[in-house]
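Q: Convert this sequence to structure tokens.
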Amino acid sequence: DYSGELLKTVTVSLFLIGPISAIVGSAAAVAMVTAAANDMVELEDGLEELAGDEPSGLTRAEFDEIRLENVTFDHVDASGQSSFRLGPIDLTLTKGETLFISGGNGSGKSTLLRILTALYAPTSGSLTLDGRAVVGGNTEAYQSLFSTVFADFHLFRRLYGLAAIDPERVDRMLVDVGLDQKVRFDDGSFDTLQLSTGQRKRLALVVAMLEDRPICVFDELAADQDPQFRRRFYEEFLPRLKAEGRTLVVVTHDDRYFGHGDRRAVMEEGRISKDEDTDG
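A:
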């Protein structure tokens, strides 16, 4: 009868409310994931188009000194208020030196690296390369001086921006960092990125070395490594890069290895509290 059919319909509807709500609730998340995936595809397509292009303006051969003078930077919250201020910072980076940067969590180390690499524009003060301000049209060329492995780095399977890659050199590097049994390099790509955090950092180090850029910036790269590889990072890889003429900026808490740098800058509450020569 009609009342019986109505009862069945209501009962079925009640059972369906939960699954339908879950589907509706997940729609926004699915849309966000789809948008992010599309952005990654567009980024990779753009990188393919730009591969081999050299930015105009400054050239890599011109680098002798980078200077931050009276630099500040404000992290602004949703209300427009400064939630953290870096600076004022005065720092000079000289070609060929190894600079260690240390300091507690939240002291401003990562923000300083982003200012140094021109990913953040200073709120005030100046960033200069050999006396020339890094602004506007020459920012891209300035950024091309750097190979970076930040704490929140991303790896791609393909090596973008490298016109000629020697597969045998890549294979030797994978052996050198202990990843030859984990990753293969074939047809211009790594076959997997499914690695532990420490292994991903080692692979990022390989990419940085392959880029052959004048300045390497490593943000806690030795973290998440076993003691043996941590020692090799400071005692073998950094000296090797320095011998190749690279300038090195390394964020580290490994005080036992501070002597392997030329200088150490200590960050406290957004400022450099100490900048001194080491035994390196």
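The longest helix spans residues 2-50.
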